[in-house]
Amino acid sequence: MRNIHSKINRRLAGVDFSRISPGFHFFRFAIYNDTRVYFQDSEVPWDTRFTGNTAINYNGEWIAIWNLNTFAGNLDSLTSKIVHEMFHAYQNEMGGTHWPDEIVGAFYPRDLRNFELKYREDQLLASLVEKFNKAAWQEFKTLRASRIRLYPKAVDYEIKMEGIEGAATYAELQALKVLDAKLYREEFKKCISSLRATHKIFDVRLLSYSTGCIIQTIRNSNALEQIDWSKATPGTGEGPGAVLPDLRVKHREYYEYIDKSIQDVLARAEKLDLGETTLLLFDPYNVRSSSDYLYHPHFLGYGTYELPANFLKGVYITRMKSRTRTIEGIWHDPRL
Predict the structure, then answer these.
(1) What end-to-end distance do the CA atoms of the chain give, in Å?
(2) What is the mean pLDDT of residues 85-110?
(3) Fewer CB within 10 A of the end CB, N or C, for the chain?
(4) Helix, strand or coil for residue 311?
(5) Any idea where the domains of the chain sit in the sequence?
């Protein structure tokens, strides 16, 4: 672990952070496993502060953290992922207020028409990053402005997620371009391909990593100003529904699978007697919803905001009051 940390540090020395984004700079980072946390010159026992791959405030300092149990790629790729988390540290350091509400994302609406319109948006972005066209750029902005009018809360979540995770993905790929240009090209192609894959559109949070990165790439490559969506003009109509014919089928299959999976877990799960409490921590990357239920495949934290979270590892289902952070019930899957 110490050797891996040193190798990452040496790679980071070749990254010009300020060229990725003005003001962005190196942050201290830690890598960890189930028992130990490793810094450049020290190590400490693992505790619940080190959960997921993210940026945390550690003893008054924003740092990037990475769980080595979740990574099987090469060191150049891992280094770029840590730059991603360093960018989150930078966003926190700058005191940005445009963080998305992850509960909104967890209960993202299932409206098929919204996904149809979003798919059209994504095809425009995929084409624009390959060959820029002013008319298509305007069409993208008009179409998204129409979705903001129709689905304001859902699209606001997407825009904020693009601003946070999309920007961090852009930083990640710019670092990777320096570390391994061939791998960068492969990863950027995957980014574009994800917009063209109909089965990926329903995981809006994950897809926002790609759409946000691509929007920033288009803007930077063509000297375009940042978009003020509050001033964008929606179209007079939604236009023709130029959608692949299997989108409706994929939509039904995707949500039927989630609904069945949650019901299957509930059928065998053990309910915990915790009363009404607050969901403080969860994995927004992997959480799934069905009605007022949330499926947590790895962990959750509950309690009150005034005290450290009670941390639960494993597979859990929570029933949320009116789709807020208030938990009305918790079930644990004893098999997983």
Answers:
(1) 28
(2) 93
(3) C
(4) strand
(5) 2-93, 102-231, 249-332
Question: Which parts of 162-282 are beta strand (E)?
Answer: 270-272, 277-282
Please report the DSSP string for 107-150 in residue order.
Answer: T----HHHHHHHHHHHHHHHHHHHS--HHHHHHHHHHHHHHHHH
CA separation for the pair 89, 34 (Å, rounded) = 23
Question: CB-side exposure of 52: number of CA atoms within 13 Å?
Answer: 16
Q: Please check whether residue 31 is in contact with residue 262, taking contact to mean a CB–CB distance below 8 angstroms.
A: no
Q: What is the tens place of the pLDDT at every residue in 266-278?
A: 999 999 999 999 9
Residue 37 Cα distances to 32, 50, 171, 258, angstroms: 4, 8, 25, 35
What is the average pLDDT across 92-111? 92
| Radius of gyration in angstroms for the set of CA atoms belonging to the chain, rounded to a whole number | 21
Cα 72 from chain centroid? 19
Q: Is the pTM of this model over 0.90?
A: yes
Tokens of 325: 């952070």
**Does 93 have pLDDT greater than 70?**
yes
pLDDT above 70 covers what percent of the chain? 96
Scan for tokens 């010009």, then name that residue: 16
Phi and psi at residue 255, in whole multiples of 5°? Answer: -80, -30
